[in-house]
Amino acid sequence: MQRSTVSRGLELITETFGLGRSTIFSGVFLTGVTAVVVAFFFLRSAPPTSITISAGPEGSVFQANAEKYRALLARNGITLTILTSKGSLENLQRLGDPATKVDVGFVQGGITNGLTVDGLVSLGSVAYQPLLVFHRSPPTAGLLSDFAGKRVSVGPAGSGTRSLALALLATNGIVPGGSTALLDQKPEEASSALVEGSIDALFLMGDSASPAVMRKLLRADAVSLFDFRQADGYTRRFGYLNKLELPAGSVDFGKGIPSNTVHLIGPTVELVARKALHPALSDLLLEAAREVHGGATLLQRRGEFPAPLEHDFPLSDDAVRFYKTGKTFLYRHLPFWLATLANRILVVLLPVVVVLIPALRLLPSIYRWRIRSRIYPWYRALLQIERELFHDPATPEERAAILERLNEIEKGVSRMKLPASFADNFYELRGHIQFVRSQLLRPPEQR
User: Fold this and answer.
1) 175-219 pLDDT, tens per residue?
2) Residues 307, 311, 312: CA angle, nearest 5 degrees
3) Cα separation, 109 vs 163, whole angstroms
4) Which of 26, 84, 87, 195 could bond to 159 as cystine, CB 3.0-4.6 Å?
């Protein structure tokens, strides 16, 4: 019963619109395949609801900033999973390893030597990362070479602190295995050792140290902050470093800490992501970065970060667009979830509609051309008979042969199966066959 209903429906469409069953099935198949493809890409184009960031040790500046990012992303329904790490170097290693499920991480400039960075892009620099070198008082000549032969903590393995410290010390002739004891202590352990006098100097950066440790050392009586008098020279030698200044009294005006302006050096911190990061999440991360890092601090002006500064990684196309024009129109004027939905409809469905509608409109034209192509050969045969009949004198035997050919044409036409919508073409052809037959049966002088 159901099959007969379907058959009647197909027959009705066939006879009404002049479409063959093959054309109808082709249209249905094309529409079905398109729907499946659209659904697949529509689902794939949705931004994930969770991402993972590799930050830094517990209590570090990197970790604290990641916590702020998590709160801001949660406002748009995005869950940010924070992985603790030893610092920038480990963050970069995780991002470069396809086996790890890390989408983004904080990476300070200048630590990519020898590491694979293919497939990674920068969302921009988000902050200066000053290198703070604390040493026992009184200060000496103000050269890193003064630490030769002493006990120096250069930061834990896997941190950007250690990578930069070793690079700077090497330019002063201090290398691992020499007379200088280069220690891989954690910041908390090393700061206590420095205050107690069991080590002589300590390198600290925000990728592995907490602000509390830095404040403790800035206020310690027996400890001084190293003044990079050769800051200009270091920034020329290492292009990823910046010259920074810590103004006198800026830490504590009442106690005059520091007692004079201290020259510092340090790279910027880049927000590094994998190329596959969804554009919508890129915008959310940069928007969060503006809230977290956009304010004024002791070392930067308001609005200075995030900034499209390229160092070790190329800026992503989405980041370039964000810095030029901000968020796209939909994300500026609609809630995140609604903007995401609308954007997916425009990106996925609109091109399909533009292609599918002309394709479906083309199918009936192709079908009509196929039907007419079955009729035209009979007209070609009729034209040939007429030429023979009117231009060449024919004997009675030849006329009988021509008449037989005409009868065969009529039989062939009668066996054709055409939809009702082409009935006019069918009967018009039969009428022309009869016309040629009448001409054939008339005496030559009456033609």
Assistant:
1) 999 999 999 999 999 999 999 999 999 999 988 888 899 989 999
2) 130
3) 10
4) 87
Residue 11 in 3-state DSSP?
helix
Query: Of 242, 270, 214, 211, which is closest to residue 91 (Cα–Cα)?
Result: 270
Strand runs labelled E in 247-300:
262-266, 268-274
Name the amino acid, one letter, at 432: H
At 214, the amino acid letter reads M
Distance (Å, whole) CA 269 – CA 91: 12
Distance CA 55, CA 65 (A): 8
Q: What pLDDT is recorded for position 54?
A: 97
Q: Quote the tokens at residue 94.
A: 């995780």
Interhelix angle for 160-170 vs 88-96, to 10°? 110
Q: Where are the alpha helices (DSSP H) in 156-249?
A: 160-170, 187-196, 211-219, 231-237
Does residue 258 have a cis peptide bond before it, meaning omega lies within 30 degrees of 0? yes
CA–CA dist 179, 162 (Å, integer): 18
Q: What is the pLDDT of residues 352-403, one digit of tens each?
A: 666 667 766 776 777 778 778 888 888 888 888 877 776 665 677 777 888 8
Q: Identify the DSSP state of 315.
A: B
Contacts of 76 (CB under 8 A, 6+ apart): 284, 336, 337
Q: Say what the pTM is.
A: 0.68
- Give tens-digit pLDDT for 331-340: 665 665 555 6
Phi, psi of 82 (to 5 degrees): -105, 125
Nearest in space to 265 (alpha carbons), one of 234, 290, 291: 234
Write the CB contacts of 26 (distance below 8 Å, at least 6 apart in sequence): 363
Residue spans of the domains in the chain: they are: 2-38+344-446, 130-266
Using DSSP, state whether 178 is helix, strand or coil: coil
Residue range 130-266 forms a domain whose CATH class is: alpha beta
- Residue whose pair of structure tokens reads 């140290």 in the numeric block: 209
Residue keyed to tokens 């630590």: 111
Instruction: Record the tokens describing residue 72, joined without a space.
Output: 């801001």
